[in-house]
Predict the structure.
Amino acid sequence: YLTVLAKLNSEELDVLIEKVEQCARECPQAQTLSQYVLCQIYFERKELEKCFEEAEKLLDTDFDIKGRLLQVNVLAEFGQYGKAMESLFKALDLFKNDWEIHAVIKLMQDRIISAEIEKRLKSKQEKIKEQEKNLFELGLLYLRQGDVRKAIESFQRIVESPDLKLRADILIGRCFLELGRFDLSITKLIAVLDQIRDTDVALANKVRYFLSINFINSGNISSALAQLEDIMTTDINFPNINEIISKFKQESFLDLSG
C-alpha cells in the first residue's frame, strides 16, 4: 500500500504525507517503511532538500542502504557528482557485497560522463555562437567599408546559427547585387524566401524587394513586378511600393491587370 501510495502524484503533498503518517501510527512495525515512502514522495515531488533530510533518519535501520541511495540521487539532481560518489564509496565500505550499490556506482559513473559530455558540447556551441556573431559583425564592417568580397567571405562562414545564417544569407544576396552578379543574388534570395515566406512576412517582403531590384537589373521586368505585387498583397504601406509599381505601369512594361 505504501509503495503504491508514493506514486499517487495526483494528490496534494500534504495529503500524501498525512496518509503515510497515519500508516505509521496504525502499524508501528511499518514505521521505517513509512519513513522511506515519505522520502520517495519528497523525491518524486522535487522536494529534494527535504528528501535528503528525511533520508538521514533511515541510516542504521533496515532501510539504511535505500536511504543512502536516495541521498545519492538527491546529490546527483543538484549536480554534486563528487559528493554523490563519496557517499556511494562510503556506503560500499559499510556494505561491501551489496549488488545495488555496485550497480548505482556504475550508473553514476555513466551519468557523470554524460553530464561532462553535455557540458563540453554546450561550451562548444556557445563558442561557435560567439564566433559566428563576430563573423557577422565583421561582415557588416567590411560591407560598410565597401569591401564586398570580404563581407561575403565572412557571411559564408556562418553555418551553425540558424537565425544568424538567415540574416547572413540575405546580406550575401545583397552583396552579389552590388557586385552585379544578379544571377547569384537571385538564387540566394529565393532560397531565403522559401524559408521565411510563411513565418516572417516583414522580412520576406524585404527579400522580395531585393529580388525585384535584381530582376529589374537583369531586364526581367515581369518577375520584378510579380515580387512587388506579392509585397502589396501583405503590406500595402511598404515604403515606395505604390510609386514603383505606378512607374512601371506608366512606362507600359507590363499590364498589371492580368
